[in-house]
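Intended use. Records like the one below are meant for learning the mapping from a protein sequence to its folded structure. Do not use them to infer anything beyond what is encoded.
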Amino acid sequence: MFLNVFSEAINNGITPTRNLNLLYIILDIVFLLIFIGLLIYKKRYATLIFALFGGIIYTVVDYGGFYLLSHSREVYINGELADPLDTFYVLLWMSMSYGITNFAFIWVCINKDKYMKYWLLLIIMWWLIAPSIAELGGEANITTYRTTNKYHGFMGVVLIISYLILIICLLRAKKPFVNILILFIIGFSVQFSREFSLLINGIRPMNEESIRTLLVNSFLETNLGMPIIYGIYYLYSKKFNEDLTRKVPVNN
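Structure written out for the chain above:
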């Protein structure tokens, strides 16, 4: 059954939708600044750089790819199609928020950060609670749409190729350098946590597409980049520490 749902979603596309208000955006920006401050305070500089990198990548993909090139992204404010500048502002916030928290989530998991449970609790708790606080700001008058039939098939191809390359590398290695199942679970978990929080809080509307959106996005959208992300972490961690200092070679 799930395979049928997944296949239909790739072939026919799904339309992820978000309904939110200005207070939600303001509160989320405040949270991001606090989160960044905590990373700096604990000298998690590599995590911070990777998180900011994630925000930039998401902005390029969302605004440049989805909005400008494929025309699959639309933003409405008070029921009217937003102009390009307002659309940019909304997508900039959304992409930076999504990218920073997603990539930080992934990095601390791969890095096995000793404060990992605190970072993850902070991120997931915010995703779950922020929409309830934002209800104090009135009705959700900002809506974003994203059709996926123009690129989910391409994403599926990238996911298969990236994991195939990683599997080949693991088969050629003398001993496994990463647990590929754990890597896949991390990619699924970060996307599922975000998608689930959007759904139960009403930011994603509950309709006949809800479960398909939850499952397909969770299995596909973050996981397609996990082998590349691990490759970046592997190359970085061989020479540098989390605080950006160079590792001291161990003499045998």
